[in-house]
Amino acid sequence: MTGSAPDRAAERTASVRRVLILILGANLLVSLSKLTIGLIQGLAAVTADGIHSLVDASSNVVGLFAVHFAARPADREHPYGHAKFEALAALFIGGMVGMTAVELVRMSVNALVEGRSPTVSGWTVGIMVGTLVVNIGVAAYERREGRRLKSAILLADADHTFSDVLVTIGVLGSLLLVRLGYPQADGILALALVGFIVYIAVGIVKGAIFVLADAARL
Predict the structure, then answer these.
(1) Could you tell me the pTM of the whole model?
(2) Which conformational region is residue 98 in: left (phi greater than 0), alpha (psi within -120 to 50 degrees), or beta?
(3) I want to staple 204 with a disulfide (CB 3.0 to 4.6 A). Which of 62, 94, 113, 216 is the partner?
């Protein structure tokens, strides 16, 4: 980036906003695909994964608002600028990931208690593999841009998206076991994924707190 400091800041803000808009579109496509097949075929793990992806999309919207406020210049009430709005948004995203874990527990327990025998078709597996490829690409792209632009919100959201990659891998494993004749795997593996999601949430919250407490720089 070249030019004056305000020009560089404006260019950075526009770049971060562009990345978030692209990721929002990808996350909406992924979440709608997962929720559709999960609800139609009664697959708890797939539906929970779709909810997780929908949280990814909502976090992108939060990020867009945060970037808008963070780009404002310093004023009397905020003599050091508004950059920490990104860290606040990252903190909020961490909380949303935690809420996803709670919902995943509820759906997993319901699937185990009700003892459903979900049906897994070939196109279900194909759609899940497709969303996995998209999520891997999204996480890698967002992390690269987050480091290049030194954006707390992009880095936090990249971690969030990576948690979706882990969830989707676990869901694919559960689909394989269901097809092999182990219907309980849907609820059990969905429940096991909670640990991954909580780990991601704690990491996001910890990073945001470090920035807000001035233990780390934006």
Answers:
(1) 0.66
(2) alpha
(3) 94
The tally of CA atoms less than 13 A away on the side-chain side of residue 135 is 30
138-162 tens-digit pLDDT: 999 999 998 988 887 788 788 878 8
For residue 182, what are its two tokens? 């182990």
Q: Which tokens is 203 given?
A: 């990491």
Q: What is the 3-class SS of 153-180, one letter each residue?
A: HHHHHHHHHHHHHHHHHHHHHHHHHHHC
At 94-116, the pLDDT tens digits run 777 777 677 777 767 776 776 66
CA distances from 156 to 9, 144, 151, 194, 198 (A): 20, 12, 9, 18, 14
Q: How far apart are CA 182 and CA 144, in angstroms?
A: 39
